[in-house]
Design brief:
Keywords: Periplasm, Signal, Transport
Oligomer: single chain
Order of helices and strands: HEHEHEHHEEEEHHEHHHEHEEHHHHHHH
Number of domains: 2
CATH class of the largest domain: Alpha Beta
Radius of gyration: 24 Å
Family: Belongs to the bacterial solute-binding protein 1 family.
Helix content: 40-55%
Largest sheet: 5 strands, mixed
Organism: Roseitalea porphyridii
Protein name: ABC transporter substrate-binding protein
Strand content: 5-15%
CATH architecture of the largest domain: 3-Layer(aba) Sandwich
Distance between the termini: 73 Å
Shape: globular
Number of strands: 11
GO molecular function: maltose binding
Length: 421
């Protein structure tokens, strides 16, 4: 009996040691705005408690352009330092060769996801990343100021311009010299590509590059949209908007110093936080159109989780990706950060609707959001986007008219196309 007990004790000890031995140390690279990182850390703590693995967040700058540049360095070096990457919705066609195919590992849950989100991460038959959350921007407006000054939520960009100017001037006349009419993402980076694509498409100016690879961005409607945006700088928007990213715009709006703001969904939860000066004083609407008979355009956003094929802990990394995207974690993200989920059922959860009415309200907008042309331009997308935002930023900075800059853009895109995108 003693020998039997000794054997069981030794076996139990070996099991503990084996359990310790298989615990993995994972790194997840993650850029964020708002409360993204806070919620991620909380969910990683739960994962660690359940699995025994440890997970370190490798933080990235806010700019998606800067994030992508760093990602490419790690991936080109075939670095095993990063196990899980948080990827922008547009990146799959450019870097898919560096990631494992997740499809065989999520076959039991893949039908639970918004199919458009899954399709955005498919390159051929390969699922590059499992969708984490989606995004489609909104026009944020100060409902209290619109009511005070007898104005309606604008339906067109021209109406927004006029309303923003009228309220801004009225508020300044009453002593608020810090009030602006409109803030958005105007810095020379991917965020400006998102904004400007919306302006142009809503004016009927087409896309940066059409789905079939056609380049028709140099047209009068596109020029009209960009020239209008250029007129905002130094008028209803501060000169500094040319350096604004998401958090810069949110900072101005949430402090109470802008009538309107274009931003992503995450800003809704923060604006209604207990520490927010504008809690209960703002609303959201779909973005304006270019005019009567036109449709609004909302750039498709979102961030998804991919497992590096250079990871030495692929099995555990897949486990982490599935965990962060499970129902409870997506529900928590939706409630705390107002990030639209990728699991269809979360949109129908009554607690989510009660806590964040923005989520079910925005489901049709997300479903109809306009993708950037990463599929059409493939591995050249980053260069295409850079050329586009540069042309727009130059126009807004007074370096040529939209017509001149779009003509130059067209020539540059044609050269990139010739490089076989």
């Amino acid at each position: 009996m003693k020998r039997h007990l000794a054997f069981l004790t030794a076996l139990a000890g070996a099991t503990v040691l084996a359990g310790t031995a298989i615990a993995a140390e994972l790194n997840i690279v993650h850029g964020s705005v708002g409360r993204d990182q806070e919620i991620l850390r909380s969910q990683l703590d739960k994962f660690e408690a359940e699995t025994g693995h440890t997970v370190t967040i490798v933080s990235m700058p806010e700019s998606t352009t800067d994030q992508f540049a760093q990602y490419k360095l790690w991936l080109a070096a075939q670095s095993s330092d990063i196990d899980v990457y948080r990827l922008d919705v547009i990146w799959a066609p450019q870097i898919e060769t560096h990631f494992i195919d997740l499809k065989p590992h999520v076959e039991d849950i893949i039908d639970d996801y918004v199919q458009g989100a899954i399709e955005s991460q498919m390159v051929g038959d390969k699922l590059v990343a499992l969708p984490m959350f989606l995004g489609a921007p909104a026009l944020y407006y100060r409902s209290d100021l619109l009511e005070k000054h007898g104005k309606d939520v604008p339906a067109t960009w021209q109406e927004m311009t006029e309303t923003a100017k009228a309220i801004m001037e009225a508020e300044r006349a009453e002593g608020n010299e810090d009030m602006w009419g409109f803030v958005f993402q105007g810095a020379a980076y991917e965020g400006l590509t998102c904004n400007a694509q919306e302006w142009i498409a809503s004016f009927g100016g087409g896309r940066i590059v059409e789905n079939d690879g056609t380049i028709a961005i140099n047209n009068p409607k596109a020029a009209e949209a960009i020239n209008l945006a250029a007129s905002w700088v130094g008028d209803i928007a501060p000169d500094g908007v040319l350096n604004y990213k998401e958090e810069d715009a949110r900072g101005v709006f949430q402090s109470g110093n802008s009538v309107f703001m274009r931003n992503w969904n995450y800003a809704y939860a923060l604006g209604n936080g207990d520490d927010s000066p504008i809690k209960g004083k703002f609303g959201v609407s779909t973005l304006p159109t270019g005019g009567e008979g036109m449709e609004p355009a909302h750039t498709l956003g979102g961030w998804h989780l991919g497992v590096s094929k250079y990871s030495e802990n692929q099995e555990e990394a897949i486990e982490l990706v599935r965990f962060l995207n499970n129902y409870e974690n997506q529900k928590e993200r939706a409630i705390v950060t107002s990030r639209p989920p990728t699991l269809t059922a979360v949109y129908e959860d009554p607690e989510v609707a009660a806590e964040q009415e923005f989520i079910p309200l925005w489901k049709p907008v997300v479903d109809g959001a306009l993708p950037r042309p990463s599929a059409a331009t493939k591995r050249q997308y980053n260069e295409v986007s850079s050329e586009f935002w540069t042309a727009v930023h130059d126009t807004m900075s007074g370096k040529g008219t939209a017509e001149e800059n779009l003509a130059r853009l067209e020539a540059r895109l044609q050269r990139l196309k010739g490089a076989n995108w």
